[in-house]
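User: For documentation purposes, I need each entry recorded in a consistent format: the amino acid sequence on its own, followed directly by the corresponding structure tokens. There are two entries in this batch. Please keep commentary to a minimum and don't merge the entries.

Assistant: Recorded as requested. Entry 1:
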Amino acid sequence: MSAPIQHSITTRGLNLWYARFQALINVSLDIKAGLITSLIGPSGCGKTTLLRCFNRVNERYGYVITTGEITILGKNIYDADVSLVELRKTVGMVFQRPNPLPISVYENVVFGLRIHTEKRKLKRSLLDEAVEMALTEVGLWEDFKSRLDVKATSLQLEQQQKLCIARLLPLKPRIILMDEPCSALDVEGTKAIEDLMFSLKGRYTFLVVTHNMAQARRASDECIFMLLGEVIEHGRTEELFLTPKHPKTAEYIEGRYG
């Protein structure tokens, strides 16, 4: 039996340029499997750029150049035999504002399955099971099991964001990237998404960009502080906030800049 993977994501000497501007500088990280890791730092420090490296979304822009190595679940994602479709099924992404499709709750959840599964294999029983399992995992099943045909864009923002997470789950991701997932939500909605992340961690690895220091402190196991494209410090969240090793980390956490 092979040993379990300790790190879901590993980078070594990762650099990224937008044309002539270098947005990431020699980033080397080990992101532990099954934990919630927050990316913090001032605006423009490279958090979202780094996040989008892990499903190779940055490459949609023709002026992006990337060097270095990124390993996801033990596989270099730049290897010639890597399928971008399979990578993005394994590494799901949730964005700042909920972006459910303007179709029913049911069809939102099965959207990925319909795209990635041969039509002859898409039995109604398979789809029904996927919907129930995904909505149960995100805590929406009891609310919507009798009204799965309701239009997803009519849901409350918190429910929409949960649905966006549920939409990933039938594709069996191992890693979920979240780019400020609570920025459009109120206090109650934020707590609901944080509670959901805690309930799902272990089964999934979460990497979360946030500007909210309180959120990073209460809702992550580990924290990465970035500044001007570089990783300044990475450690257990409690240690990074209470006993930061780098003076720049202390200055940021104490609100002296950013």
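Entry 2:
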Amino acid sequence: MMRLAGSNLACVRGGRQVFKSLSFALDAGEALLVTGPNGVGKSSLLRLVAGLVRMDAGRLEFEGGDPELTIGEHAHYVGHQDALKPSLSVHENLAFWARFLGGEPAKGDAALAAVGLDGLARLPASYLSAGQRRRLSLARLIAVNRPVWLLDEPTTALDAVGQTMLAQFMRAHLANSGLILAAAHGPIGLDRAKELRLGVAP
């Protein structure tokens, strides 16, 4: 059984303490929605779990995965930036991420179809709308199987259809015993998600 837990976490960025004494726990099949106003550390928490930000205090544990891998290597991190190369095609962008994340580029076609971009596979990413770029970024979740999803404002730029699509992906991931830690200002389509509300930054 997989479990992700943080105990008394603290994060300092730019000489400012973003948060301290922060604890949470997620078991397989659970989602945790991190909410609160801007500047309280929602994004920093996700980046800390992903291994992209230094942990200044506390303990972060992941049980049930490959002991040879870090938590970040068990996770998909989708941040504010869509991290695409404009000159590469839609297909080439996803193939790059699949290789980088240790997956199989051949699964890219199915992932593009799942997010409704299969008809644009040969188009340079620079031609995509903001919503289409977000869909392409989210296609990594489908193309490469990882148990932990770290999603920072995942519905940004998505229309109603895209938000419904994402909610379906997330529910399927949880049904397969996955874990989701998501930062958002409002609902993201997971009615049973637990909530961790961060207070005003000091």
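Summary note for entry 2:
The two ends are 37 Å apart (CA to CA).
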